[in-house]
Design brief:
Structural class: mainly beta
Oligomer: single chain
Number of helices: 4
Helix content: under 10%
């Protein structure tokens, strides 16, 4: 028989590998019922290193699990997501590290490791490192169905995974960890935000940041490098006609199944703008300070009302509950190209794009000179248009929808690189700011 102590807390300090804000069993159960974050730690009595740590936040649809070895190195990590009408957990991600000896450091690049991602639709990806097959993108994972889903356990029904995976000998008996008298009650901590910054928190998808600053002349921004960037006046790139009232944002080079994202707009014609910055840096080749102009984003102006809030637009099958820390949904491109288009005429506009851009057929499209928005096609029957723009590279690009204070769509923006940090605002009452 193996005795395992169970302890509850508000948070888990990732750096110290210690509980923060201990809770009684009753207080932890209250947080579980309310959907609030809390942590469960399993230890062998007398040992500092945990066997496993469970990180729970039902309000974020998230359960995490981490297993440790005798050296305190993480050996297994599971990422589960509460889906299926709050009844089942998807085994979203699994990562494993198999250290070759006690001297090998945690996460050593030479450590044999594997990872698996699973999706609700039955697809997934698998990779093995430092050698072996590397699975990427959507694929069928053999035998994954039996490990894809599990029912949502009750508060006291969680298994000790270390025992299930035969890391503990014999039958396991649980006992609550001792707490100092009068500690661990639900009202002992009024504000979880006072927890150290090293404490775990539920993963958050990518945040929009100060997108509007990219179109505000005079704003100083940085991308984390030594370069200094000053926002210039936006560059007008023409207009886009959307008579159907449904705007498409997609990669025209990989969109045979229709546009990746659509969003409703009032039928009409809208201005296209490019956010531009002046970049200055020390040139090693010329040994002097040089400047040039870069484009950081493109936007479609739906109204004259400024955006008061931003949200990531989703495709028809995108589920934000599946996203990890700083992850995105968006449109994919393997040709470094995106586009805005009238979704009502998508098939026609997409075919015209391919005939003009790929087949070089004359008379079916229009090249736009001296602009990031480099190509336009028009559907003669409806008058709907497609305007293609260059991205900085292949990959996935999120589309950010800016809404007015009343909730109406004001603009849509595609960032061509990551969100920079605002160093100094370009408005009249210039103040130091921090990224959202």
């Amino acid at each position: 028989m193996t005795v395992v102590e169970v302890a509850y807390a508000l948070a888990w300090d990732l750096q110290a590998r210690a509980l923060w804000g201990p809770l009684t069993v009753e207080a932890a159960r209250e947080r579980d019922v309310a959907g609030l974050p809390y942590t469960v730690v399993y230890r062998i009595p007398g040992q500092e290193i945990p066997l496993e740590v469970r990180l729970i936040s039902w309000q974020d649809h998230y359960v995490g699990l981490r297993l440790y070895d005798d050296q305190g190195r993480r050996t297994d990590e599971l990422d589960l997501r509460l889906l299926d009408d709050q009844r089942r957990l998807l085994n979203r991600r699994t990562r494993q590290w198999r250290y070759t000896g006690p001297e090998m450091a945690e996460f050593d690049e030479r450590c044999p490791r594997s990872s698996m991602e699973l999706f609700p639709d039955g697809k997934g990806s698998v990779s093995h490192k430092p050698q072996g097959a590397h699975g990427r993108g959507h694929m069928t994972v053999p035998g994954a169905d039996v490990r894809r889903w599990q029912g949502r356990p009750g508060f006291e029904d969680w298994p000790v995974v270390a025992a299930l995976w035969q890391k503990l000998p014999g039958q396991v008996t649980l006992r609550p960890a001792a707490l100092a008298p009068g500690t661990g009650t639900a009202d002992a901590f009024d504000n979880v935000s006072v927890a150290p910054g090293t404490c775990w928190r539920p993963p958050r998808p990518a945040q929009p940041g100060p997108i509007d600053a990219l179109f505000r002349p005079g704003t100083r921004i940085t991308d984390g490098s030594d370069q200094e960037m000053t926002v210039l006046e936006p560059r007008r790139s023409g207009t886009l006609r959307v008579p159907s009232g449904l705007l498409a944002i997609s990669g025209p080079d990989s969109s045979d199944d229709g546009p990746a994202i659509t969003i409703s707009v009032p039928p009409g014609e809208y201005a296209l703008e490019e956010a531009q910055v002046r970049v200055g840096c020390n040139c090693e080749w010329s040994q002097r300070w040089v400047t040039h102009t870069d484009t950081t984003a493109v936007r479609l102006c739906v109204s004259d009302t400024p955006a008061a809030s931003w949200e990531m637009s989703l495709g028809p099958e995108d589920d934000p509950r599946l996203l990890g820390e700083n992850e995105i949904f968006g449109f994919d491109t393997d040709g470094a190209t995106g586009c805005f288009a009238d979704a009502g005429a998508w098939d026609s506009l997409h075919q015209l794009f391919e005939r003009h851009f790929v087949d070089r057929e004359p008379g079916v499209g229009e090249d736009i000179p001296n602009s990031l928005c480099f190509l336009r096609t028009q559907d003669d029957a409806s008058g709907g248009e497609l305007v293609a723009f260059a991205t900085s590279r292949d990959g996935t690009y999120p589309m950010w929808a800016g809404r007015s204070a009343d909730g109406d769509l004001a603009e849509v923006v595609v960032l061509l690189d990551g969100m920079p940090t605002v160093v100094r605002d370009g408005s009249a009452d210039s103040t130091e700011t921090t990224p959202a």
